[in-house]
Amino acid sequence: MQKAHANMTTQLETFKIIDLPRGGLVPLAAAAGKRVTVLSGRVWITEEGCVDDAVLGSGEVMTLSVKGLAVIEALSPARLQLLDSG
Questions:
Q1: Which pLDDT score is estimated for 66?
Q2: Is the dihedral of CA 22, 39, 86, 12 positive or negative?
Q3: What is the mean pLDDT of each run of 10 residues along the chain (86 residues)?
Q4: pLDDT at residue 5, as a whole number
Q5: 35 touches 85 (CB < 8 A)
Q6: pLDDT tens-digit series, residues 17-39
Q7: Are strands 70-74 and 54-57 parallel, antiparallel or unpaired?
Q8: How far are the Cα atoms of 29, 68, 86 from residue 58, in angstroms, in the given order?
Q9: Virtual CA dihedral for 19, 39, 54, 66, nearest 10 degrees?
Q10: Which are the contacts of 53, defined by CB distance < 8 A and separation ≥ 6?
Q11: How far apart are CA 66 and CA 23, in angstroms?
């Protein structure tokens, strides 16, 4: 079960901090432009229609590129920051 610890908004950006247990999932619709920062742990990210998936570890960042669905799965307990620029 995921648990959001913070939800902060400015005029330009909204971000969430999410804790995931191993195997926990975060589906993201309309994912293009969202930035994922792994604060701790390891995650696997797959994007609809993309051939390549990504595995990110602590300190790594990825900006999602597809307009469709992206799914993040925790390969170990993980803490993420999801940034949505608006």
A1: 87
A2: positive
A3: 54 83 95 95 96 96 93 98 82
A4: 54
A5: yes
A6: 999 999 999 999 988 999 999 99
A7: unpaired
A8: 24, 25, 25
A9: 70
A10: 44, 45, 46, 47
A11: 23
Token pair for residue 47? 């994007």
> In sequence order, which residues have a C-beta less than 8 Å from that of residue 51 and are 6 or more positions away?
none
Those residues whose C-beta lies under 8 Å from the C-beta of residue 67, and which sit 6 or more positions away, are: 30, 31, 32
Which domains does the chain show, CATH number per domain?
Answer: 3-85 (2.60.120.10)
54-57: strand order across its sheet: 25-28, 70-74, 42-47, 54-57
The pLDDT of residue 27: 96
